[in-house]
Write a structure and sequence with these properties.
Order of helices and strands of chain B: HHEEEEHHH
Shape of chain A: globular
Radius of gyration of chain A: 28 Å
Radius of gyration of chain B: 17 Å
Number of domains of chain B: 1
Number of strands of chain A: 5
Helix content of chain A: 40-55%
CATH architecture of chain B: Roll
CATH superfamily of chain B: Ubiquitin Conjugating Enzyme
CATH topology of chain B: Ubiquitin Conjugating Enzyme
Protein name (chain B): Ubiquitin-conjugating enzyme/RWD-like protein
Organism (chain B): Lipomyces kononenkoae (Yeast)
Largest sheet of chain B: 4 strands, antiparallel
Number of strands of chain B: 4
Oligomer: heterodimer
Bound molecules: zinc ion
């Protein structure tokens, strides 16, 4: 099962505490390790593609929100989470080796070194259990803090069986309840305060100083009214800066860790990549939309819905690809789009060859049988005890009649209509598939960010 | 299995496989779920144990989960395949519960957004929600009006019908 790894792989090994580390390095949308992690304003991190697709899939009637905390999310405010990206890379590199060690028989590791290691593990485990949230999210603070919310957390966690993802949630909830709990957040606040403090010195004579707030984007301090005027321009500037930074990051590689490990650097000189803007589809008639797709080198066949969905998917794929440290070629991206169109956009029956899963389903069917057997036994016991005497056969027949008058609920109808909207194979012309590096798309004035 | 060719794009299948694996590795009490056929990860069957101290106690209720191709962006649909007399279950067995409704897709218009589907929800969370739905019907979002009425006006009769269904699911 190397193809599907998940945090529960660590349960039952000698290093069960790695489960939480493993879990916190995964995207909550795809459950895989972060790929090009990006952080929302609410400080939740997802794969670039996952969060972009999530935002794109939000119905236009709703505001896109964070899948974890449901705070509003603006795609333009997403920020790369470089530390997480590095953590994922190095954890993934070492995972198999660590797993091998973690699964070794304890007997092999009986030397003095081993016992020291075991001791360390168990003590960190205990600490992990007490101050779990701190271990998960603050890779920086090793010094135990005097205040401890561990007790409350522990009580809440043990009140019922929860998955580790829920544990992360609980940690987050707690932070919402008490802002100062999170050491990360605390340091953020501190640095914000520090910045504000320095401005206070400059503006000390000014009585208005206390009403000043930092711009959420550039942290420059000003009055709330000024922020409102300033913020739009600031975001635009920030975007431009980021685009530049991304490009220079690609060509220079700002990752000293790699050089330390004497790994080959990605020294690819590329043409600058530019983000594709989202389109306000209402402003495009079919012809304009088709020519837009043609400009991008995309197929132009299909219904209006297909055209829109294809464009929207392409924008997500494209922009997430720009975020990647190893961007794909346009040809590969087009293949991804084609896969998406034939697998996701249409309601096709999925063919999965899953030899390894045979073992799982055997276990699984045993679970089913056991569950049924146990339930039957329970009920027999109950019946023997003389409960349930009141069951009348008339009640049963009432239910049966109702069962026959089935009405199709709305959800089912909706699925059917999805089937119908997506017909027609995409037609990928050969020249689109030329295996060239991606060239910048034309920047159009009618585009809306 | 599932070499790079497919895993490149099939987020839905990969995620469903991961969920399946986790459900097996850390099976939560009272629920069990997995694909009906390993060749099609978009159709699952699941079993839910009736919660204790409710008329559903002792029962094991089979249902199917049908996942959309863009899972987890959209929620699956869940349908009981046994007799289920419950205010929030349509007469054809389809479950009507907020976690299965995407934002902007709320047939009842009053469900709180925080309870609705989000891509971080999972099969496990759905089944746990359905379990607590069995224990505590939501009077406001009635899917089966008859069940709503009986549940509201004649609890003894409601309990009796439910218990009859429990016995039926067990083949008694
Ligand atoms: Zn992801
Ligand atoms: Zn969030
Ligand atoms: Zn600013």
């Amino acid at each position: 099962m190397d193809e599907i790894s998940d945090p529960s792989d660590w349960t039952g090994t000698r290093l069960p505490s790695l489960l939480m580390l493993d879990s916190s390095l995964r995207c909550r949308i795809c459950k895989d390790f972060f790929k090009s992690p990006f952080m929302t304003e609410c400080t939740h991190t997802f794969c670039s593609l996952c969060i972009r697709k999530c935002i794109a899939s939000t119905p236009t009637s709703e505001a896109a929100c964070c899948p974890i905390c449901r705070a509003p999310v603006l795609e333009i405010r997403l920020r790369r989470n470089q530390v997480v990206e590095d953590l994922v890379e190095w954890f993934e590199n070492g995972r198999a080796a660590i797993m091998t060690v973690a699964k070794e028989e304890p007997l092999i590791m009986n030397g003095p070194v081993a016992s020291a290691a075991t001791e360390r593990t168990s003590s960190s485990e205990t600490r992990g259990r007490k101050r779990r949230r701190d271990t998960v999210d603050s890779s920086t603070s090793l010094t135990p803090e005097p205040r401890d919310n561990g007790l409350r957390r522990t009580t809440r966690i043990s009140s019922r069986k929860v998955s580790y993802e829920e544990k992360l949630d609980i940690g987050i909830e707690n932070d919402d309840e008490a802002d100062t709990c999170d050491p990360d957040e605390k340091s953020d606040v501190n640095s914000a305060n520090a910045q504000r403090d320095s401005s206070f010195i400059l503006l000390d004579d000014d009585d208005k100083a206390e009403n000043l707030v930092p711009c959420p984007v550039c942290n420059v301090v000003m009055t709330p009214q000024e922020v409102q005027v300033h913020i739009d321009d600031c975001i635009k500037q920030q975007e431009a800066k980021e685009a530049q930074a991304n490009q220079s990051a690609l060509s220079k590689s700002n990752r000293p860790l790699r050089t330390l490990q004497s790994q080959p650097l990605h020294q690819v000189t590329r043409k600058p990549l530019q983000r594709l803007p989202k389109l306000q589809y209402d402003l495009f008639n079919d012809t304009k939309l088709r020519s837009k797709l043609a400009e991008l080198g995309l197929p132009t066949n299909g219904s209006r819905t297909q055209l829109q969905q294809r464009h929207s998917e392409w924008v997500s794929l494209w922009n997430a690809n720009i975020d990647s440290n190893n961007p794909k070629t346009k040809r590969e991206l087009l293949r991804d789009l084609n896969d998406w169109e034939s697998n996701v956009a249409r309601y096709a029956v999925q063919k999965v060859s899953a030899d390894d899963l045979a073992a799982w389903s055997k276990t699984h069917s045993n679970d089913f049988d056991a569950l049924i057997a146990r339930a039957k036994k329970d009920v027999h016991k109950k019946l023997d005890n003389g409960q349930n005497q009141g069951t009348s056969s008339s009640a049963e027949s009432v239910v049966q009649t109702q069962q026959r008058q089935d009405s199709v609920p709305a959800e089912i109808k909706k699925i059917d209509s999805i089937d119908e909207t997506s017909e027609g194979q995409m037609d990928y012309k050969r020249d689109f598939l030329a295996d060239t590096l991606i060239t910048p798309p034309p920047v159009s004035s009618d585009a809306i960010m | 299995m599932y070499k790079s060719q497919n895993s490149r794009t099939n987020t839905a299948v990969r995620r469903l496989m991961t969920e399946y694996k986790q459900l097996i590795n850390e099976a939560p009490d009272g629920i069990s779920a997995g694909p009906i056929d390993e060749d099609n990860f978009f159709e699952w069957e699941c079993l839910i144990q009736g919660p204790e101290d409710t008329p559903f106690e002792g029962g094991v209720f089979p249902a199917t989960l049908t996942f959309p191709k863009d899972y987890p962006l959209s929620p699956p649909t869940m349908k009981f395949t046994c007799d289920m007399f419950h205010p929030n279950v349509y007469k054809d067995g389809t479950v009507c519960i907020s976690i299965l409704h995407a934002p902007g897709d709320d047939p009842n218009m009053y469900e709180s957004a925080s309870e609705r589907w989000s891509p971080i929800q999972s099969v496990e969370k759905i089944l746990i929600s359905v379990m607590s739905m069995l224990a505590e019907p939501n009077d406001e979002s009635g899917a089966n009006i008859d069940a709503c009425k009986v549940w509201r006006n004649d609890r003894a009769e409601y309990n009796r019908i439910v218990k009859a269904n429990v016995r039926k699911t067990l083949g008694l």
